[in-house]
Amino acid sequence: MKWIWRFASQEQALWKETIKARFGMENKWTTYMPTQPYGTGVWRSIRSQWIKFANNWKIKVGNGGKTLFWEDVWAGQVTLKNKYPDLFNLSLQKVSRIREMRDNQGWDLRFRRHLNDWEINKVAELLNTLEQYKDLTPNEDNLFWLPDKQGRFSVGSAYKTSQRSVCQSSGWPGR
Predict the structure, then answer these.
(1) Is residue 171 left, alpha or beta, with left meaning phi > 0 and alpha meaning psi from -120 to 50?
(2) b/e for 91-110, b at 16 or more Cβ within 10 A?
């Protein structure tokens, strides 16, 4: 898990640029899963930990430059795409980042047609959800490690987290 965290949080490291060039980026935080049969075993093994890892972090929004508005989990426990599927289907900004969805006056949501009454209620609900994110900061978006109160990743906390999940799934009482 350490390498997954490093990949997601380190910027412009040569090793990261090499991995990005080799496998391509699924999103700003990770690569696509390697599909080639040879020469990819190490990264495939590391990348396979992403799902376990993803349940233990959240995105801390800064300037909104890395975080996908609809696709990433940043405003609540699920993606906005899953929480508001009808609005996502109508959106003209399906792959936009948070920063691209704002202007000087606030949120700039664009839809492919005029909204119906019931859809306007959904937009109001969405805007209410977004109210706490109205002020972006100059800082970059980054990952917050949930098992640690300060949000810092450590191998020890990752190990404890993985041990808890193994104990829970096996029914064996943990320490």
Answers:
(1) left
(2) beeeebbbbebbeeeebebe
pLDDT digit string, tens, across residues 29-73:
788 888 877 777 888 888 888 777 777 888 899 999 989 999 998
Distances, alpha carbon 1 to alpha carbons 58, 85, 145, in Å: 15, 32, 12
Cα three-residue angle 132-133-135, rounded to 5 degrees:
110
Over the stretch 32-41, which tens digit does the pLDDT of each residue have?
Answer: 888 877 777 8
Q: Would you state the torsion angle of the CA atoms of residues 132, 139, 106, 133, taken in this order, to the nearest 10 degrees?
A: -10
Beta strands, E only, the chain: 57-60, 102-103, 106-107, 142-145
Question: Which regions in the chain score pLDDT beneath 70?
Answer: 164-175
Domain ranges, ordered by start, for the chain: 2-170
119, 112 in Cβ contact below 8 A?
no
**Single pTM value for the model:** 0.73
Check residue 100 and report its DSSP letter: G
DSSP track, 119-159: HHHHHHHHHHHHGGG-S--SSPPEEEETTSTT----HHHHH
